[in-house]
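Hi R.,

Here's the chain you asked about this morning:
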Amino acid sequence: MGARSRPEVVAGTRRPAGQPVVEMQTVSKRYRKGGGIEDVTLEVGPGEVFGFLGPNGAGKTTTIRLLLDLIRPDRGTIRLFGLDPRRDGVAVRRRLGYLPGDLVLYDRLTAREVLSHFAHLRRGPSWQAIASLCERFDLEVDRPIRSLSKGNRQKVGLVQALMGTPELLLLDEPTSGLDPIVQHEVHSSLRQLVLEGTTVFLSSHVLSEVEQVADRVGMIRAGRVEAVERVDELRSRSVHLVEVRTASPLDPAAFSALPGVAKLDVVDHTAHLEIAGSLDPLIGELAGMEVADLSVREPDLEEVFLSFYASPSTITPAGREREQDHG
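And here is the predicted structure, written out as tokens:
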């Protein structure tokens, strides 16, 4: 891949300086049957990885389709690289890579033929560069697409999005269907592209995925962006679900006074806790005990999301069904 100089970074932050690569100003899109987004305002700087998070039906896919001018907003302004994606669509598309959430490929062609076709349309890159990505993702390129598993089809989509060192990547659930080893390779590839200057807009409902690569996250619920935060700040406020089992019966008082303990249930030798923020106080308390077993589970995105910005009743099954149609 051809290297590009790394963008300048504002002192004291990880957010790059310069004109935003992605700009949305009070953008709204509503569907007749419900769903869509309302007054979304976002900016993503050059060389930044921006994670766009939300439960199914929140509006993630709709936002990406609007950025690509695949659908048109009811109102608001969208700019990519400072350009109008509708008026300057060809110029914009030459500079980006895109992986849709509902990937559809030519079933009768092989992965090699599909990728060669896309490379020809983009006037590059070389097959050697494409083959390097295929090898990295362990993709068999000479089998027909129709014979590939969902995970291998996803690999084809990722290769076509990443090849050619795009200036902007728009990725909708990029690691869906991939095994953990390939997920790790995808994250490594994204980090390398960012070092070369690529900006990444990554949609996902999995917090742990975005946490590994993103600088900031925007959280969307029911079509509205509820918050934009740095990943480390979001994680520092999330709740950990802890189970402790000791050799001796436990005293609830040993845990109830610890900072961040939101819920506590102690029965004989076992304690279940919900702790917000750092686990250091808990570890310090356990140091004086004979711990037989300890498990810590990080909440998934929906649990974090509901903890901060919603109640379970506000995200309905109907909202999840709308995601399938509108994202």
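One quick note: The first strand starts at residue 22 and ends at 30.

Cheers,
M.
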